[in-house]
Amino acid sequence: MRMYLAHPVTDYGTKRQADAVSLIHANGWAVENPNQPHHEAAYKQYGMAHFAEVVEGCDGLAFLRFPSGAIGAGVAREVETALRCCLPVWDVSGGKLVGIGTMMPFPVLTVDETRALIAEIRANAA
After folding, report:
1. What is the pLDDT of residue 109?
2. What range defines the domain where residue 10 resides?
């Protein structure tokens, strides 16, 4: 069984990402991590449609929110795709996988709000 890990790009290569991957593995799933060179190349060519297709090919989805609790626009689109496909979806929260049922979680940021928050996180990390 393969679970897609939807998470902010600011978590790529971080302890938060590693902890989420470990948690998913501990629950018996293989992880489809979008933080891989072949996904980056496909994104440059096909945009978010690539990730929607990848999600559709998985058996479930787990997602990470920004540390503020907000859900970025890209992660939200991946969650929506999973829900539309009737895949189980979990919120990675407090070191646990918390099922969300069939309702879209919130709060969801707009694309502009997501970009601004990513820029702020990156500026603070520099």
Report:
1. 99
2. 2-125
CB 66 within 8 A of CB 38: no
Contact 42, 69 (CB under 8 A): no
Domain count, the chain: 1
Q: What's the token pair of residue 80?
A: 């929506």
- Asked if omega into 88 is within 30° of 0 (cis), the reply is no
> Which CATH number do you get for residue 82?
3.40.50.450
Q: What is the pLDDT of residue 126?
A: 82
Give the list of residues 6+ apart from residue 20 with CB closer than 8 angstroms, or none.
5, 7, 11, 62, 64, 92
Regions of the chain where pLDDT drops below 50 = none
Output the pLDDT for position 91.
99
Q: Within a 10 A sphere around the Cβ of 83, how many other Cβ atoms?
A: 19
Q: How many residues does the chain have?
A: 126
> Tokens standing for 62?
């787990």
> If you ran DSSP here, which 8-state letter would residue 34 be given?
S
Q: Are 75 and 34 in contact (CB under 8 A)?
A: no
- Tell me the three state secondary structure of residue 52: helix
